[in-house]
# Entry
Amino acid sequence: MTLPMIIALAITVFMVILVMTDKLPFGAPPLLACLLLVLFGVADIKTAFAGFSNSTIVMLASFMAIMAALQKTSFIATFKNAMYNMASKGGFKAYLMLILIVMLGCSLFGTGSTAYYVLTIGLLSTLPYNKKLPPSKVVMTAGFAANHPLIPLNVALQYGIVLAVLNSAGALAEVSMVKFTAVNFILSMGFLFRCLIAYKALPDHPIAEASEDAAAQGTAAVTFPKWKEHTTYIVFVAAVVGMILQSTIGDAGYAIPGLSVAVLLIIGVMNFKEIRDAICSPIILMSAGVIGIADALGNTGLTNLVGQTVANMLGSGINPFVLVFSFCILTSVLATLTGSTIGTVYVFAPLAIATCTSLGLNPVAAAVAIVISGWCGHFLPIDGMPAMVMGVGNYKLTEFWKFTIPMYFIRLLALTAGALIMFPM
# Structure
């Protein structure tokens, strides 16, 4: 390892320790880590703080402001009241129902949809505290459920990447869409299993946006005229559509949520201080700060070094399950650290495919599992979804890891098993 690699790794570990011990406010450790990267010459200012100009962060910050405006509407007041009523009727049934509803919605949006998880976690942040269904039990599980379709219909992106990495590696093979969908379903069932067994162990406390007075939150009154409320709905829908269509319309998709916030400011739904507080929230600082750290880890060559080392360690006599599972761990961990899911998949999927081919094994299962695993990190709160879950849920890192680390391994075991069952090697 080179000196820059060692320094970048040490700074990353230091940041994680600060987050774990709560020595600094949430969102501050990544900013300190970015400054240390510059101080030790691992990255320049532009690279270290690149997250604050990152298109996804700009879109996410804008959407946080829109969600703050949406919470003033009668829709959210009704939603809060409905959630309060559901919680008061029975804990576990309501808990399970909320998770299934979110997973069903994910079936339409697809795995890894920024628009959907931001929308979902934003709505979950309005849950009032109730002893029979503490919101801290719901944000963690239903938040991550936004990444797991109950009925995997919209899997075109991942399916296309599987075909692309197989072709790029020279492994021409047919991949059944039905079987690929079945693998995603098995993964979702693994996640649901984790949620079911975790219910009693999940923490019990109010979340960041909720107060102790659940009933009062459930009956919050709208404070502006109907036309302003309707306009808020319109700009919310426009922002969601822009986020969904980003892959088609390009950077305009990132700009639409920001323009929607401008409309809310102009018509007086939100004042500038409210908008500033929303877009500069600790969740945004955390999400933006870690991008520079991830870039530094990649730029020093540490990411590629880890990948090549693991590939060499696996050797030629390894069990197919261990082979696929190992590459899934490698891909998911580095996708989380670098913040580049597709880029990481394109680095490590060909390595796994080449390894399988050299061993005389069918590489389809490896390609399928590794591509999907890129969206299965989340045990570190340094990416958009896990950072938002941890911030909104007001979790300590120990509480976060108590759920996410078992979730991580259960999902990858289910994914590996599902890929090998559907596509025998």
About this structure: The first helix runs from residue 3 to 21. The radius of gyration is 22 Å.
